[in-house]
Structures are given as C-alpha cells and as structure tokens.
Amino acid sequence: xxGFTLQNGIIVSGDREPGRGSLGVSEQTIVSEAxxxxxxxxxxxxxxxxxxxxxxxxxxxxxxxxxxxxxxxLTWLPWDNDLKASDTFxxxxxLNREDLYAxxxxxxxxxxxxxxxxxxxxxxxxxxxxxxxIRAILEYGLAHEASSYDLKWGDGVxxxxxxxxxxxxxxITHLSEGFDEEAMNGIGCLxxxxxxxxxxxxxxxxxxxxxxxxxxxxxxxxxxxxxxxxMFMFNVTCxxxxxxxxxxxxxxxxxxxxxxxxxLLEEMRYDRELYRRLYGEDLPAKTFFKMCxxxxxxxxxxxxxxxxxxxxxxxxxLVIRGETTDPYENLLAARMEDIELLVLAGKPIYGExxxxxxxxxxxxxxxxxxTVGKRPMFVKGDPAGLYKSCREKIGFKKTLDFLPFEPx
Length: 408
Known about the structure:
The strands form three sheets. Strands 1, 2, 3, 4, 5, 14, 15, 16, 17 and 18 form a ten-stranded mixed beta sheet that branches. Strands 9-10-11-12-13 form a five-stranded parallel beta sheet. The chain has a three-stranded parallel beta sheet with strand order 6-7-8. A hairpin with a 2-residue loop joins β15 and β16. The radius of gyration is 21 Å and the shape is globular. About 30% of the residues lie in helices and about 25% in strands. The chain folds into two domains: about 130 residues, Urease, subunit C, domain 1 (Roll); about 250 residues, Metal-dependent hydrolases (TIM Barrel). The protein has 14 helices and 18 strands. It is α/β, with parallel strands linked by helices.
C-alpha cells in the first residue's frame, strides 16, 4: 500500500502548537492527505518517531553490570573489565551477533524508536544494521573516545571527523566519560585537533567544566545525555541544566542495557526524575519530547528528513493512546503497552489490528502477530520466534524487560 491518512488525531510536532488534524502518508513521505483513512476519534496523539542518539546494539542484555556495591568507576575501562568477567557476559555469549542485534532492533521498535545510532564501527555493523526492523543510521564518523586508552575504532579521530564534515554526517564519540586527567580534558583534545564543531555529537560528557560547556555551545556541537547509565556507573551525570541554559543541542541516549535503562521511554522518565532530584525543579515534558525528536535529528544531520511531521519529510510516525490531555506529558507517561502504531518511512511496522487496513487488510508476509498488554498486535518480523530461540540457546526462560510480551 502506497498511502493512507490518520484522521482526527492530536498532532504533536516540533514547536508547532499541538492540535487536532489529519496526517497523510504517500510512499515514504508525509503529505496532506491520502487514502484509505483511519479515524483516531481524537483519542490518540500522533508524534514523530522517536530517535535514540546512543546505544550499543550488540550489548543489549540483562542484568546490567556495574561497580561493586558502594563504589563507582573512575573511567569506563574498569567497567569493561568487569563486564567481560561477569555472568551476564558469559550468558550473553551464548547468543550470536545476529541474535543480539535483532533483540536490540525490537528494543527500539517496542519503545517507539524509529531511528538509532549503534555506536560501533561500520566494519562491524554495516551488513547487519539494514536487517533490523527499524532504522539504524550508517552514515557517521566515529571514535570510541578521544583518549590514549580508547578502543581505536575507525580510521582515527581526525580522519573520521574529516569524513563526517565532507559528507554532512555527524561525528560521534564518547567524551569525558570519567574523571582521570585525560577524560577531564576531552574538549581540549578536540580543540587541539581543531575538530570541535557542529558535526560533533558528544556522548556522556560527565566531566565537562563550565568552560567546556560554553565551548560546546559556541561550536554548535550536540550532546547525548545518558542519565541512567551515568548514575549507575559513576553516581554523577553531566551538568545538564548548565548545558540547556547555554543553548547546547541536548539529545537523549539509552546506552546499552548492560548499564542503561530498558528503553528510551524509560530513559526519558528516569532523566526527568533525575533532573528534579539534582536541581529541585522540573524540566518540562516538551523539552524531553524535543530531545528525542528534532534535537536528535539535528544531531544526526537528518533534520531535513525526519524529527518533525512536516510535509515532505519521511513518514516516521508514532501513535500513542491519549491518557492525559497534555500531549507532552502523555509521551513522558507512555509505556510500551500504550503504543498503538509505529510507522517507518511510510510503512507500518507495528500496531493494533485495527490498523491492518494500512497493510492491505491482513497480516502480510514478513509480519507476525503477538500479544502486548492483552492486545493482539501485528509486527514486522518474528520477535516471538526470536525470543523463543534465544531462550533455547541460553538454556532457561530468560526475561528481557525491553520485550513487552511472552512468546505464545
């Protein structure tokens, strides 16, 4: 099916005032109207598909691995050693890379995420990312971290950044993830290489000084805030209020579930409560909405294609049932069970059976049916078969909290 219209929904997009309206889809893009039409009866909110700016898709497994009780890490390196010595890692190793990436694709899908970055080099993920049910971007330059003890991903920090600039891609790297001398001089390292600019998407940034924040804002760089992972590993997060006050383009990332939250919906909720604890004040729900839509699209250099529901952009659409009258609070309160429909580039990839007319009236080949929150749902691929297969390989009835169903 090449087109459809979602009628009488509450459309929430960018800085536009939310309001009742219709959203058309033709081929892959948003248009004013197309056929057939589904009436949402003013009971559902229509959002852009969410964007997760930081994950490690091969690392999504439970339970998380952290520091010994009562202690915290100085840098990421001792965590990596603890991970590889953990029972979690041994258990995870019973699954192959294809299994882990497929599980991660569904972690994204079931939380309304249509676009994600897998923070690994393309030589590791270029063949597998296109097989996922959601969009994992492949056009980026990267480094693991700007330090002497990073993992030397890519072709070197300067070369990767130059490639990103040449192609209008983001340059993505962990930065200042820790408190040793090198971690605390992450911005100095980028300045020395003359690569601190608006192509930079900097992850974690927990050791930034006030001066670092001003330099990032002036350069037009973006930051991926991963509050849950930061607190779990380091008992501190970035100076988020100062970043926002300085005008930094802040986005949200989950990190992998080896240290991070279950999914992006949970991360937004956690980060809001964290902000309240840190500063004794609230951060508006609309700010979180923007962090996971237009801000994130801008950080990925994709804001001309996605991040809002403007005509001509890719039809990445998330429909969530209305539980509150405020559309932004509704998003922050949403659980996996509240998602009604998810559309990727005009193609429904997950939804309630009432939306099957958008797929020709029946579950098509390449899709299956599962039950989520007592509702029968269609979904692209076979996550139930994947879940069963992974349990067989693991050797017991493993529960992964980012999968909101039991295989039948």
